[in-house]
């Protein structure tokens, strides 16, 4: 019988091997899974005890001997308690692993190997629940100590000696990055101590791996957040990958039963005095359960890891935005954009000469959403001869294959802009807590008594811009403070706030304390945010725009649903855009999160001397921090918005910039205006050189070996275009161009 079972298994799933078979169709004991690149071993308790390179005997072991990895943990938020698997039993016929737990729960996990590239794990059932409202895949512990992709969950060893990465990727929106016990479903943004290479960046005495530090500044000025130039200060943008006291990297995803309202205590930057946590009810989402949660688990040589990720994305039908037929995550599609200021007379001319494909109207200012206008906004494009509508301008850009868009403030609902705030506030604004009036009040009464003071003494948002606003019916009321003893009375009350109508209210009426954003406005709940996604799609269609900069992306965290809120917004935005005929949206944002990783094209935040010093060829602190986040998570790093061209800017400066951009994998927005460009003596040479580099990048002509050469900022380079398929690379030494290599278009791979 055992022989028959094993034979059947090899036919159905060749990557599985059962060591012990005790009953037809069942396997009690241990399980080995493998792909072309990766082998894992699951013991009889349901723990991964071995992770090795595939195709090599003996393969290098990446599982720490003292830290086996639970395949699936259960978590009760009510008890704040994890349950680890106690036993594992595999069913060949169903390809399911049955895990049992000490609380009496049993979980069934469907296991598949796909394309010999990755393994999928899907939760099919969990019964009985026994207070379980969250499940966690992993943590999957590794002994890799190099780069940790905290956004998507990857442990990378990029050294030539090892060259291997282990990762996990969520396969549906209900599954989000990080651990189950993290408040707000998102990791706090702060510095963690981690050296990616102890020989190059040894930790000084007094610092240790995994130690946490606050960001810099006052919690309000975001540039000042970036305060440590040392490479071992690593800023966090997620916790899908995290490190231990040895610097070893672990990975985790989880899924929440979101059908029940919960209370959390959350701040995005809790170590910073101006960003104190606040209590908040997290809205229930009907029908969004944890059953069906699914991840892909993979391991591959690091230089092939992006190809494996693309294979997962395509086969699992995950979001797959493309530029010129290629995935936006491909380095050949790391295209710079234009940040335009001033009159637009020469905007299209400059953009075409550079070969760039997108323009952000940075000089027009920040755009706040107002659903009442249905996308018919009155913003105008200035020319020396007058102003034109955005649609008239995009009619011209779209003919030339150039995208155009605005610098928006995401889901920020402001009192002087949004119809969802005033004069009649939307009933779907984000609520921190709910209580009741304890007295009747007239339209002019400021003596407001409530039945419960709990948490009303906290400010209305966790960022450093405190505003307290409550909603009763259709009236907004400002207050500051509440008495500590009964009768609990609001202090410093202002009725009819933000031009809403002050009216009489009765004892027992519901009182809602609202979440505020960092600019003193309000926040949509998860369902109103759906309508804002529709609005932005409509805005794009009406105005012919295919580009959007979502500044203030931390606004997706205000509802307490973390990465899920990102995923829900972007999915809706892209689907609605497609329905309206907008096939591709180039998304730039203020941050990058696991929930937005699939959708976001670039992260061109910051700018000027905060990011990269062109003349000195050095990364500034913010640039270093953003670069390390992006590179670890297979995203383009950024120079942000560059400094404008100067009269004495040289073509060699910009060739050096392009070399680093290609070598490291960096995008940027070029700061352009007629005034700065026309003042530059070498403008024509600079424009021509940039276009040559960008033509070669788009052709995928830079090999891995060439990129390593270009990444060396101590060397200077020059590139010449021979024809549309061929380029010659030179190194500048002692004032002379020394030939290095001829580059060719990657025709074989469709570039």
Low-confidence stretches: 1-24
End-to-end Cα distance, whole Å, is 53 Å
Mean pLDDT: 93
| Alpha-beta content class | alpha+beta
Helix content: 10-25%
Largest sheet: 9 strands, antiparallel
Q: How many DSSP E strands?
A: 48
Approximate shape: globular
Count of individual helical segments: 11
Strand content: 25-35%
Q: Which sequence of strands runs across the widest sheet?
A: 2-9-10-11-12-25-16-15-14
Oligomer: single chain
Radius of gyration: 27 Å
Describe the structure in your own words.
This protein has 751 residues and is α+β, with helices and mostly antiparallel strands. It is 17% helix and 30% strand. The protein has eleven helices and 48 strands. The strands form twelve sheets. The chain has a nine-stranded antiparallel β-sheet, covered by helices on one side. Strands 28, 29, 30, 33, 40, 41, 44 and 45 form an eight-stranded parallel β-sheet that branches. Helix 5 runs parallel beside helix 6 (563-579), helix 8 packs parallel to helix 10 and helix 8 (651-665) crosses helix 11. It is globular and about 85 Å long.
Describe the secondary-structure layout.
Elements: H1 2-12, E1 17-18, E2 26-28, E3 31-34, E4 38-42, E5 47-53, E6 69-70, E7 72-76, E8 81-83, E9 85-91, E10 96-101, E11 106-114, E12 118-127, E13 134-141, E14 147-149, E15 154-157, E16 164-170, E17 175-177, E18 191-193, E19 212-213, E20 233-235, E21 241-243, E22 249-256, E23 262-266, E24 278-282, E25 294-300, H2 305-315, E26 322-323, E27 326-327, E28 337-340, H3 347-354, E29 358-360, E30 366-367, E31 380-383, E32 386-389, H4 390-399, E33 403-408, E34 431-436, E35 449-450, E36 469-472, E37 475-478, E38 488-489, E39 510-514, H5 526-543, E40 547-550, H6 563-579, E41 586-589, E42 612-613, E43 618-619, H7 621-632, E44 637-641, H8 651-665, E45 666-672, H9 674-679, H10 683-698, H11 704-710, E46 716-723, E47 726-733, E48 736-744
Parallel strand pairs: 28-29, 28-45, 29-33, 30-33, 33-40, 40-41, 44-45
Antiparallel strand pairs: 1-3, 2-9, 3-4, 4-5, 5-6, 7-8, 7-13, 9-10, 10-11, 11-12, 12-25, 13-22, 14-15, 15-16, 16-25, 17-22, 18-19, 18-20, 21-22, 23-24, 26-27, 31-32, 34-39, 35-38, 36-37, 36-39, 42-43, 46-47, 47-48
Helix pairs in contact: 5-6, 8-10, 8-11
């Amino acid at each position: 019988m055992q022989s028959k079972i094993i034979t059947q298994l090899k036919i159905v799933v060749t990557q599985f091997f059962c060591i012990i078979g005790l009953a037809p169709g069942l396997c009690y004991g241990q399980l080995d899974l493998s792909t072309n690149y990766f082998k894992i071993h699951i013991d009889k308790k349901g723990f991964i005890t071995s992770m090795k390179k595939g195709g090599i005997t003996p393969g290098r072991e990446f599982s720490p001997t003292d830290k086996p990895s639970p395949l699936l943990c259960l978590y009760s938020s009510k008890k704040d308690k994890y349950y680890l698997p106690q036993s594992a039993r595999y069913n060949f016929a169903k390809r399911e692993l049955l895990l049992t737990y000490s609380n009496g729960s049993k979980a069934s996990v469907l296991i598949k190997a796909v394309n010999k590239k990755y393994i999928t794990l899907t939760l099919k059932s969990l019964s009985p629940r026994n207070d379980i409202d969250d499940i966690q895949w992993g943590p999957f512990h590794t002994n890799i100590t190099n780069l940790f992709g905290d956004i998507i969950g990857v442990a990378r060893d990029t050294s030539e000696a090892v060259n291997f990465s282990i990762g996990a990727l969520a396969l549906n929106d209900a599954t989000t990055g990080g651990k189950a016990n993290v408040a707000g479903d998102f990791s706090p943004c702060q510095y963690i101590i981690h050296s990616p290479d102890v020989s190059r960046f040894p930790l000084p005495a007094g610092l240790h791996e995994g130690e946490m530090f606050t960001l810099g500044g006052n919690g309000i000025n975001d540039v000042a957040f970036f305060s440590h130039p040392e490479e071992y200060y690593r800023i966090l943008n997620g916790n899908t990958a995290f490190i231990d006291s040895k610097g070893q990297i672990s990975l985790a995803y989880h899924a929440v039963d979101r059908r029940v309202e919960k209370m959390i205590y959350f701040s995005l930057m809790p170590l910073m005095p101006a960003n104190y946590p606040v209590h908040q009810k997290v809205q229930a989402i009907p029908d969004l359960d944890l059953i069906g949660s699914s991840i892909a688990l993979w391991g591959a040589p690091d230089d092939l890891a992006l190809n494996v990720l693309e294979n997962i994305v395509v086969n699992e039908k995950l979001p797959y935005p493309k530029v010129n037929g290629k995935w936006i995550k491909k380095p050949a599609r790391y295209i710079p954009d234009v940040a335009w200021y001033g009159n637009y007379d020469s905007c299209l001319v400059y953009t075409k000469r550079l070969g760039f494909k997108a323009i952000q109207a940075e000089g027009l200012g920040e755009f706040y959403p107002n659903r009442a206008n249905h996308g018919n906004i009155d913003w105008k494009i200035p020319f020396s001869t007058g102003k034109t509508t955005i649609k008239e301008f995009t009619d011209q850009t779209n003919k030339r294959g150039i995208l155009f868009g605005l610098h928006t403030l995401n889901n920020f609902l402001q009192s002087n802009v949004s119809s969802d705030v005033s004069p009649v506030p939307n009933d779907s604004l984000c609520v921190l807590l709910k209580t009741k009036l304890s007295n009747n009040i007239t339209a002019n009464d400021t003596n407001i008594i409530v039945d419960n003071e709990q948490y009303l003494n906290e400010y209305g948002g966790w960022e450093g811009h405190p505003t307290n606003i409550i909603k009763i019916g259709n009236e907004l009321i400002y207050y500051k403070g509440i008495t500590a003893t009964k009768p609990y009375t609001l202090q410093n009350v202002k009725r009819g706030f933000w031009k809403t109508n002050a009216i009489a209210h009765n004892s027992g009426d519901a009182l809602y304390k609202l979440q505020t954003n960092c600019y003193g406005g309000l926040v949509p709940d998860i369902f109103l945010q759906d309508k804002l996604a529709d609005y932005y799609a409509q805005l794009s269609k009406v105005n012919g725009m295919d580009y959007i900069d979502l500044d203030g992306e931390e606004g997706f965290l205000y509802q307490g649903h973390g990465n899920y809120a990102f995923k829900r917004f972007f999915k809706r935005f892209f689907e609605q855009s497609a329905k309206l005929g907008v096939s591709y949206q180039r998304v730039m944002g203020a941050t990058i999160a696991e929930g937005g990783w699939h959708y976001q094209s670039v992260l061109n935040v910051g700018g000027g001397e905060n990011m990269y010093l062109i003349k000195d060829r050095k990364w500034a602190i913010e640039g270093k921090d953003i670069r390390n986040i992006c590179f670890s998570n297979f995203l383009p790093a950024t120079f942000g918005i560059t400094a404008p061209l100067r009269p004495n800017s040289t073509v060699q400066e910009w060739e050096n910039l392009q070399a680093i951009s290609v070598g490291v994998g960096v995008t940027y927005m070029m700061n352009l205006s007629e005034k700065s460009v026309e003042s530059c003596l070498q403008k024509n040479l600079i424009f021509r050189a940039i276009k040559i580099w960008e033509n070669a990048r788009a052709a995928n002509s830079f090999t891995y070996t060439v990129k390593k050469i270009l990444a060396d900022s101590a060397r200077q380079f020059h590139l010449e275009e021979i024809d549309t398929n061929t380029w010659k690379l030179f190194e500048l030494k002692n004032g002379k161009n020394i030939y290095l290599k001829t580059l060719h278009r990657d025709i074989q791979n469709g570039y």
